[in-house]
Amino acid sequence: MAPPNAPTVYDVAERAGVSIATVSRVLRTPEAVKQSTRERVLAVVQELGYVPSASARGLAGRRTGALGLFIPGHEAIDDPVEAHATGTGVRIIDDRTGSASRHRGFRADYFDELLRGAELEAWRSGHALMIGAGRGDGSIDDLAGRVDGLAIVASTVSDEAVERLAARLPVVLLAGGRNELPVDHLAVDNRAGMRAVAEHALRVRGPGAVLVLAGPIDSPDAEERRQGVRDALAAHGARLDAQHDDGLFTRDRGRERTAEALAGGPLGAVIAANDQLALGALDALLDAGAAVPEQCVVTGFDGIEEARLARPPLTTVAQPMEALGRTAIRTLLARIAEPQRARSDERMPVTVVLRESCPPA
Amino acid sequence: MAPPNAPTVYDVAERAGVSIATVSRVLRTPEAVKQSTRERVLAVVQELGYVPSASARGLAGRRTGALGLFIPGHEAIDDPVEAHATGTGVRIIDDRTGSASRHRGFRADYFDELLRGAELEAWRSGHALMIGAGRGDGSIDDLAGRVDGLAIVASTVSDEAVERLAARLPVVLLAGGRNELPVDHLAVDNRAGMRAVAEHALRVRGPGAVLVLAGPIDSPDAEERRQGVRDALAAHGARLDAQHDDGLFTRDRGRERTAEALAGGPLGAVIAANDQLALGALDALLDAGAAVPEQCVVTGFDGIEEARLARPPLTTVAQPMEALGRTAIRTLLARIAEPQRARSDERMPVTVVLRESCPPA
DNA sequence: GCACCCAATGTAAGCGCATACAGTCAGAGT
DNA sequence: ACTCTGACTGTATGCGCTTACATTGGGTGC
């Protein structure tokens, strides 16, 4: 069922009555081979089911023909549906409320599109795409040995590792605000996007206080968004009665902090640094019986699918994930083509998506 | 920024004052090297930022250390949010109803988990995971040349291509009912799952007719599910007044057919072969003012996220996608370890998830 | 003190392919 | 008829690593 008898150039060459160089040429530079020869060789290739070894090709050609994308690792699995998968037969569970989340949120919503964009662009350029998920610097080394260029989602790997890798192959860093490293950098316009949505929220907010859920203090992205909120607050006149929370990027955090704030008085707006926090805020507001958006408007950031499907649909700032993926690959290709070009530091535009949770004025 | 000066074993060996064989041993079989030597070599590896070339290793070792997963290709991109991504700055759009879908449904909901499972398992076994998306037999050849084993989602590649590849390396076919090919096969228990959910639907159905949305006639999966419905109908007494539709797997199809059926009289149950169809049925029922589940119950199949978030939440049969991914890799590893083992043909269990659209009795 | 053995390391031979370089040969030019 | 040119094709080398086999040198047992 799986004999390790893969044919090589030698087999093809012998059978076609040519040298291995000709076989190689037929595959790499077909126009350099006489048509009759080419056809004969291709026929043998077909007949033998010959597939060139990427290893040999990579070694001889000093390039692997693959590009890498390194994303944060998966969370542990803890899924009631999945857990069953070890048994047999059919199991029936009661999940009437649809609460049995499959614990994937972040990954599926955020990275799948990135991956799609990257893969599409890699394919266009004739490269394969190899993805790796962050599980320590070791795993990225493994990836690095297999590719001609590497796109790394920020915060998955230490700065030192990035620098070390960058000395070996083209690297582009994705997202994250930092860009002190001597590598190409690609991010979204967190600050402007956040400012835009925050200004809108402040403009249409209800009568209560403003709550800012600003996210982790050690996240460069969160920091830029925080700055965007400051811009918006400043633009709306000196000091607002804004409450502020620095913390996790989780839905639970959003719910807790919003509930706490509500205990201190009515809220007129919740401005969250990501969609998870905003969804948590929605949870708390609905629990407390506060009408969204009539009494309190809510905004998020990221544009995950769950925000769209929330009730009410969540106003947010959509990141162009697919475009990010595409651009990351393009940046990589540009550097591969021209190693000495100036370090790029691109910002991708974002889109404020106005939905029911904070509708147009 | 990207000097092509990657250090090799020779550099490390020279600097550490050993032979390249010793360097290789330190990395492959550390226990075979004296501790003092090992430490000296590792120090140099660290210092030079040495990363072994996967190509050279693959060529010399006759294995790439990578496994492949081949999934259906991406759909064309047609996304109002994404389309903006070529400009700059911040754009604002009005999507109050949350209808600006990002056109990813299938991919994100279905394959991300598969990918996660596969990757997790590959990582555990010390393999890298390479994913490829179906764009013709050519692209899978490219993948095949890079990996030690290949998991292929059925219906992405022709049977001939699968056979050809299987002659070269271990292959496992995922999903799909067919299994005539001489390769390992892995699927879910479509029939039993469908029978279980259909029996439940028939048991709790409303007073109207039963509509079966059976999916494409050329899909092996759909055929198995169709059989499951037949089983359920038979178990519920000979002939039911069931209407039947064979066709696409899309939401629009579900909506259309359900609307047509409703025009002919009230429905008591809609049993769909996948979640997209079921969601379409929900659309049509809500349009028509039919109460779900009071008047008509609805069931789907797959367990995509959107089913959980639908209103009402959709009763469905969840596939253990992550477990499928894991098992696919395990199957591959088993065959790599023992090429002559018997062809495996495993069925994974499914979970009927009862939600509001067809609640427990 | 000598033959032996084993642990540690070195030597050398490829792995399958790309490619620089060296033919070969038919037709063009003189 | 002879050289020259260019289109094709063959020869030979090496990419960076793994690994079978050879070598070395210190114990061990007698």
TrEMBL record, chains A, B:
A Pfam short name: LacI
Stretches assigned to the HTH lacI-type domain: 7-61
SUPFAM superfamilies tied to this protein: lambda repressor-like DNA-binding domains (SSF47413), Periplasmic binding protein-like I (SSF53822)
InterPro entries reported for this sequence: HTH_LacI, LacI/GalR-like_sensor, Lambda_DNA-bd_dom_sf, Peripla_BP_I
SMART domains reported for this sequence: HTH_LACI (SM00354)
UniProt entry keywords in alphabetical sequence: DNA-binding, Repressor, Transcription, Transcription regulation
GO molecular function: DNA-binding transcription factor activity; transcription cis-regulatory region binding
Annotated PANTHER family: HTH-TYPE TRANSCRIPTIONAL REPRESSOR PURR-RELATED, LACI-RELATED TRANSCRIPTIONAL REPRESSOR
Descriptive protein name: LacI family transcriptional regulator
Origin species: Arenivirga flava
